[in-house]
């Protein structure tokens, strides 16, 4: 079966998804939305460094809404406030298009009925579904850590730790304004929910720990934060610009699901520009620690084959794979908010299956 797909945005992650759609024999690129005026009017194949597709990039949402498509891969840049893209997503849903977002929306029920209502009404109007996908949110906590608990008789605490090297990020606005790198640490409170980067990150990851708590049957009391920022040990030159000594070079974002007055689930994310403040400089991308009966500990890294010839990072391929593999299940799902499934498995292309 073939699915018509619209790619929304073509940043580093979006271009990887665009290539994945163009290359997949069971997917047909139906449209392309871009934010950069310089990309408007260009063929999608040109933007993706692929042969011409006949699909021309547009920055007019009305043109996208009029297209016939099964799903929109919504990969807009993460931006404050967390709800910034909600209106666009609702318009896409109301037009009859399923939407997969890589920037949260994994468990919008956490924010209450008033927040949820706009998504639900859009889904009802369009007969469509919304899914939050990707690696985190979407894969490591929502799927892998969740499945690991299936062998436990009892659970005391679950901690999922992610460590990401951010030095290759190229957009200065994103790195310094959205993520808070380079800011003077004095006077900044990363646990202030009104501070832009904290509001943005809290929006995504409060949903993640709340979702896992609900899946495990816990009565969640609240989600609390325990964010810590570390100063640069020396000046650091990054792809996005320089971080002066003493400026924020490492943020450990931490969210805790409080159950019965105790921290039952912790999501910990180290976004780093240097390794000086890590306990283990030889880190893996993800570590999952379950304290219970039995205890479970495992580490996960992503990599590429030795003969891989492209500059695309394994994490970018992972996000694209997560979205592409979610398309059949999302299209088949009834209208509404789709809970992150425990298994949207890789499916061989129809040509291979035959």
UniProtKB/TrEMBL annotation:
Domain of life: Bacteria
GO molecular function: 4-hydroxy-tetrahydrodipicolinate reductase
Protein name, per record: Dihydrodipicolinate reductase N-terminal domain-containing protein
Keyword Nucleotidyltransferase: no
Pfam families the UniProt entry points to: DapB_N
Source organism (scientific name): Seongchinamella sediminis
InterPro entries for this protein: DapB_N (IPR000846), NAD(P)-bd_dom_sf (IPR036291)
Dihydrodipicolinate reductase N-terminal domain boundaries: 9-73
Tagged with keyword Oxidoreductase: yes
Alphabetical keyword list: NADP, Oxidoreductase
């Amino acid at each position: 079966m073939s699915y018509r797909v619209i790619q929304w945005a073509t940043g580093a992650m979006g271009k990887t998804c665009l290539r994945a759609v163009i290359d997949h024999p069971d997917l047909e690129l139906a449209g392309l939305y871009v934010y950069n005026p310089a990309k408007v009017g260009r063929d999608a194949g040109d933007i993706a460094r692929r042969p011409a597709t006949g699909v021309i990039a547009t920055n007019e949402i009305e043109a996208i809404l009029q297209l016939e498509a099964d799903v929109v891969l919504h990969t807009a840049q993460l931006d404050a406030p967390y709800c910034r893209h909600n209106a666009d997503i609702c318009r896409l849903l109301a037009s009859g298009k399923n939407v997969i977002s890589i920037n949260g929306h994994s468990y919008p029920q956490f924010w209450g009925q008033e927040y949820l209502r706009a998504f639900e009404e859009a889904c009802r109007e369009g007969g469509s579904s919304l899914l939050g996908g990707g690696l985190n949110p979407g894969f490591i906590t929502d799927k892998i850590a969740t499945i690991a608990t299936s062998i436990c008789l009892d659970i005391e605490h679950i901690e999922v730790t992610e460590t990401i090297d951010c030095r290759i990020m190229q957009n200065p606005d994103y790195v310094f304004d959205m993520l808070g790198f380079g800011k003077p640490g004095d006077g900044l409170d990363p646990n202030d929910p009104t501070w832009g980067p904290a509001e943005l990150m809290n929006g995504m990851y409060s949903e993640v720990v709340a979702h896992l708590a609900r899946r495990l049957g816990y009565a969640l009391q609240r989600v609390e934060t325990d964010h810590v920022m570390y100063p640069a040990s020396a000046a650091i030159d990054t792809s996005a610009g320089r971080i002066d000594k003493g400026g924020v070079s490492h943020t450990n974002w931490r969210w805790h699901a409080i159950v019965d007055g105790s921290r039952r689930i912790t999501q910990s994310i180290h976004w780093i520009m240097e390794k000086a403040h890590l306990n283990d400089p030889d880190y893996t991308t993800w570590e999952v620690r379950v304290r219970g009966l039995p205890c479970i500990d495992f580490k996960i890294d992503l990599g590429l084959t030795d003969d891989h010839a492209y500059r695309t990072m394994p994490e970018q391929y992972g996000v694209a794979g997560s979205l592409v593999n979610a398309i059949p299940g999302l299209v088949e799902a009834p209208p509404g908010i789709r809970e992150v499934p425990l298994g949207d498995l890789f499916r061989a292309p129809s040509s291979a299956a035959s």
